[in-house]
């Protein structure tokens, strides 16, 4: 998908509207928070899985995996 930077906000608004529609109209009884995998560190601060996985990965350059 190619997205122009000037269309980013329009895309974000449409995506948010779509996700909200799915959550409220198509799947109102589903508990989406049950699959929230945020974790607390020793200090009690919430650390998301993406931060945890990024810390576990080696420090390879973006250019190595970018197409």
Summary tags:
mainly alpha, two-stranded antiparallel sheet, 3 helices
Question: How are the elements arranged and paired?
Answer:
Elements: H1 8-26, E1 39-40, E2 46-47, H2 49-56, H3 62-65
Antiparallel strand pairs: 1-2
How far from one another are the termini?
Answer: 13 Å
Strand content bin: 5-15%
Please count the beta strands (DSSP E, at least 2 residues each).
2
Shape: flat
Order of helices and strands: HEEHH
Radius of gyration: 17 Å
The largest sheet is:
2 strands, antiparallel
Contiguous low-pLDDT stretches (5 residues minimum) are none
Overall mean pLDDT:
77
- The SS-based structural class is mainly alpha
Approximate helicity band = 40-55%
Strand order of the largest sheet: 1-2
Number of helices: 3
Q: What does this 3D model show about the protein?
A:
- This protein has 67 residues and is mostly helical.
- It has helices at residues 8-26, 49-56, 62-65, and strands at 39-40, 46-47.
- It has a two-stranded antiparallel ribbon with strand order 1-2.
- Strand 1 and strand 2 form a beta hairpin.
- The longest helix is centred in the first third of the chain and has 19 residues, at 8-26.
